[in-house]
C-alpha cells in the first residue's frame, strides 16, 4: 500500500511539475512580440520628430476679416467707378499677409491659396464685389434688388483656389454703381489661407 501511495504521489508530482515548467504561454514568443512593439514605437517617435522639424520651418498663412467693427449701419457706395474695399476688422491674420490699411493680401510664398468672399445686402440697391489678382478680375459676387417688395436681405458668396507666386496681390473692389452694407453682425467677410507651398 505504501508503494501504491508513493507511486501515485510521484505520478501527481510529475504531472504538476510538467504543467509548471511547460505553460500554455510561449514566453520566448511573447518577448519577441514586446521587442517588435518597442521597435515600432521607436520608429513612430522618430517619424513624429521628423514631422515636427519639417513643420517648424513651414510658412503659415491665414486671415479672416470683415468690413467694419461698427455696431451701427454703414453703407459704402454707390460710386460712379469701381472703388477699393478695405476689410479692416481683423479676426485672424496669421503671417500678417493681409494689410488692413490697404485691403491687400500679398502672397509671402509661392503656393496654392484659398479665398472666400461673402456679400450681404439689406436693401433694394444692387451690391457687388470682385476679387482681383494683381489688378485683374478672378471672381465676383453680386446681388440685385429682389422683384418682391420687402424681401431685401440677401447673402451671396464665392470661393476660389489660386496658384500664386511670391508677391502676387489679391484685392477687392466694389463694383461701380453698387453699394455694400455692414453693421455689428459683420456679415460682409473676406478670408483666405495657404493650402500648400510649391
Describe this structure in words.
The chain is of the alpha+beta class and 198 residues long. Helix content is 25%, strand content 39%. It is built from two helices and 13 strands. The strands form three sheets. Strands 3, 5, 6, 8, 9 and 11 form a six-stranded antiparallel beta sheet that branches. A five-stranded antiparallel beta sheet has the order 4-1-13-7-10, with no helix packed on it. Strand 8 and strand 9 form a beta hairpin. The protein is elongated and about 120 Å long.
Short description:
The chain is an alpha+beta fold and 198 residues long. Helix content is 25%, strand content 39%. It has helices at residues 2-21, 27-56, and strands at residues 62-66, 74-76, 83-85, 89-94, 98-99, 104-106, 111-121, 127-133, 136-143, 154-164, 169-174, 180-182, 189-197.
Q: Sketch the topology as an H/E string, one letter per element.
A: HHEEEEEEEEEEEEE
Distance between the termini: 92 Å
Q: What is the approximate shape?
A: elongated
Strand content: 35-45%
Number of helices: 2
Unreliable segments (pLDDT under 50, ≥5 consecutive)? none
Percent helix = 25-40%
The mean pLDDT is: 86
The major beta sheet can be summarized as: 6 strands, antiparallel
Look at the helices and sheets and give the structural class: alpha+beta
Q: What Rg is obtained from the alpha carbons, in whole angstroms?
A: 35 Å
**Strand tally:** 13
